[in-house]
Each structure stands twice: as structure tokens, then as C-alpha cells.
Amino acid sequence: MSEDPIICTCNNVSRSTILKTIKEKDLKTEDEVYEATDAGMVCGSCCADIQEIMEENL
Ligand code: FES
Fold it and tell me: Which of 18, 43, 52, 53 gets mutated to test ligand 1 (max ligand atoms within 8 A of its CB)?
């Protein structure tokens, strides 16, 4: 298994959770990811990482 870092420390959302949610719900925008996972909803410092994950996986 590869590493599964926590991307959003505020809400304890891991990289695998974000990827899984993007695939399951066919999310297209960062806003959809924030809403679906709760990542990015508190301090916003993880938003750049989430954007990167999305770009890698579109
Ligand atoms: S680290 Fe994601 S909202 Fe703060």
C-alpha cells in the first residue's frame, strides 16, 4: 500500500478519501470536493493540495 497522507488536517481527510469520493461521485470541481468530503471547509490551507489531486486525476 502506498502512503495515504492526511490532506486536510482540520477535518482529518486523507488523500485516499478525496480520490475515492472524486471517483464515486464523479466530482468535477474543487467546490464539489469540499462539500462532499468536508476538506477545505475550515482554514482553507489544504485547498492547493486538493486542486493538485484533482488536476492529477482528471
Ligand atoms: S486543512 Fe483543510 S480546511 Fe484546514
Answer: 43
Structural domains for the chain: 6-57 (1.10.10.1100)
- Ligand 1 mean position, distance from CA 43 (Å): 5
For helices 30-37 and 47-57, angle between their N-to-C axes, nearest 10 degrees: 110
Ligand 1 binding site (Cβ under 6 Å of any ligand atom): 8-10, 39-46
pLDDT of residue 57: 81
What is d(CA 45, CA 40) in angstroms, rounded to the nearest whole number?
Answer: 7
pLDDT at 28 over 90: yes
- Report pLDDT digits (tens) over 14-24: 999 999 999 99
